[in-house]
Amino acid sequence: MTNKTKPFILSSIAVAIGSYYIGLNANAEPPVVEQTQQNQTISKEKLEAYIKFTKILNLIEHEYVDETNTTELVDKALKGLMSNLDAHSSYMDKKEYKDLNVHTKGEFGGLGISVGMKDGSLTVIAPIQDTPAYKAGVKAGDIIIKLDNKATMGMNIDEAVSIMRGKPGSSITLTILRKNETKPREIKINRAIIKVQSVFAKVIDGDLLYIQVTSFDQNVVKEVKKALTKYSKAKGIVLDLRSNPGGLLDQAVGLVDLFVDKGVIVSQKGRSKAENITFNAKADKDDVKTPMVVLVDGGSASASEIVSGALQDLKRAVVVGEKTFGKGSVQAVIPIGNEEGLRLTVARYYLPSGRSIQAKGVDPDVVIHLGSITNGDASNNSLIKESELDKHLTVSDSNNTTPEVMQNTLSNKGNNMSESEINKDSQLKGASDILKALIITEGRKK
């Protein structure tokens, strides 16, 4: 998603219709008669469509069983219009527009869950780590059929998000359907102020740096830079983007740019020429040599797919895990006045090779399903997501100090991952093993 400001004029229906009458009666000399007739036909069709809308609006206002409010009717019409364009376009009222701005700054109220529409059902893309939804056991792929006692069938995403957000401390019950379970389950969750720590860093086996990015808020590039500086002696890097639902485009581009110094990172193409943009890597002090593995899964979406796909195409990293979500479209946030806005799909993303991830996703170089390591074997259960791990990565204790370099390692008790912790995550175990092989291979080239 991109935040952008565009000049936007919202005229009344009457003014819009009037403008088309003016267009039809204009005295400008047509350069080509056939073209003029075609333009008049298009203008007439538009005029008829506007008239039909106002007729229906007028009928509802005067004949509907209950008294209606014109502003509310128009807002509902806009919501229906936007939701029927595609899965990600939407009209945002005052509350929704405010919530979006707060969300991208890394702090907002609610459950800590990313949702989308899949086959007409409200579906969990991913819970955000260490949030109420995550702790309550909500999992990627869960289908939400009720929010408290309100059915989600026919509900758009913005309405669902609005219901899930509320006063901190208040509760909401989600009724969900989970794959391979015959009965719905109810999960009660207490709302909270969601303060997202988007970047976590730990050490594997003394000399491998593990960086997890949980969402692409405005702090990602800054925090990853800090981790790279703090653990500058790392021999290899695991970048974990699993269950990361995406976020800000500039942070995705900036993250890739930390590891490459040339080439196209991502491009976007839309109907408007203004949306045809190419983002190139900058030749600065990047880490272009440290061996790298990127972890992805079905909850990795949008910005996560740009990062993993770009690093894959540029042959900078090996992508490990499961096929990603497949969201390759660009949403521009266009203000309407000062308090409302549109989230409008304006373009599609294309990776450096020119391929699109829209409805396709990124295929990992090495497929590893999530599970635990038992006697050297990984459990092949693609339904389990990272959020299910009992003792997955947690925030470092506040009293952790700067790591001491001992015997050429990155030893730090608070930030070291134990062998048992790694073995509970077959994908991470596989990624670290692949990374060790890459380090050995690079060493032999010298």
Reported for the largest beta sheet, the result is:
7 strands, mixed
Our measurement of the CA-to-CA distance between the termini, rounded to an integer number of angstroms, reads: 42 Å
**CATH-level-2 architecture of the largest domain:** Alpha-Beta Complex
What is the count of distinct domains?
Answer: 3
- The strands making up the biggest β-sheet line up spatially as 20-17-16-13-12-11-23
The name CATH uses for the topology of the largest domain is: 2-enoyl-CoA Hydratase, Chain A, domain 1
Please identify the structural class as seen in this structure: alpha/beta
Sum up the overall morphology in one term: globular
- CATH-wise, what's the superfamily of the largest domain? 2-enoyl-CoA Hydratase, Chain A, domain 1
- Mean pLDDT, all residues: 83
How many strands? Answer: 23
Estimate the helix proportion, in percent: 25-40%
What does this structure look like?
- The model is unreliable at 2-30 and 376-409 (pLDDT under 50).
- This protein has 3 domains: 10-68, no CATH class; 93-103 and 107-195, Pdz3 Domain (Roll); 199-445, 2-enoyl-CoA Hydratase, Chain A, domain 1, CATH 3.90.226.
- The strands form 5 sheets. It has a 7-stranded mixed beta sheet, sandwiched between helices. Strands 1, 2, 14, 15, 18 and 19 form a 6-stranded mixed beta sheet that branches. Strands 4, 5, 6, 7, 8 and 9 form a 6-stranded antiparallel beta sheet that branches.
- A hairpin with a 7-residue loop joins strand 8 and strand 9 (185-190).
- It has 446 residues and is of the alpha/beta class.
- The two termini are 42 Å apart.
- The protein has helices spanning 13-24, 33-63, 70-83, 94-103, 132-136, 157-164, 220-230, 249-257, 303-313, 419-423, 426-445; strands at 2-3, 90-92, 107-110, 113-118, 121-127, 143-147, 150-151, 171-177, 185-190, 192-195, 199-204, 208-213, 236-240, 264-270, 277-280, 292-296, 318-321, 329-336, 340-350, 366-367, 373-374, 377-378, 416-417.
